[in-house]
Amino acid sequence: MNEIFFHERVKKFYIWIKRMSRSHQLQISPDALWHHLAVTWENVNGSYEIFVDGKFRERGEDLAKGTLIIPEGNVVLGNDKDSHVPAGFEARDAFVGNISRVNVWDYVLPRETIELLSQRCGLENGNTVGWRDFKNGSFNGEAFIREPSSCQRVE
Ligand SMILES: [Ca+2]
Question: What pLDDT was estimated at residue 153?
Fold first, then answer.
């Protein structure tokens, strides 16, 4: 089972915590520019917020209130793992594009921090999942690492 899962489909953005989900009418522009996505969630009230390019966009409450995220799992970028498929992944669900700087923190970052992170191509590393850790992971399908990323070249 997925502990935390985000995806976008038909201009809707979905947040899943375990088997509970919320969706919002939200699309990250499919243009040639980099966009910054941040999602916060806390389990006391189950409140969450979605930020695109550092700007607050949507919020909600009572999503998986009281739920604990089980540690030591796997992090998957660019697809979703299904139990009904032998290999776990389906090509039709694959993300097409570039992904950079995926980080997870075990606390809710302040809005000001999210805004700052969205404005630069930094070297921050989440305290739970850090972008640096992905380079040691396994890659499936047509996945390539580009270094430095085009994000870093902008600076
Ligand atoms: Ca799938």
Answer: 53
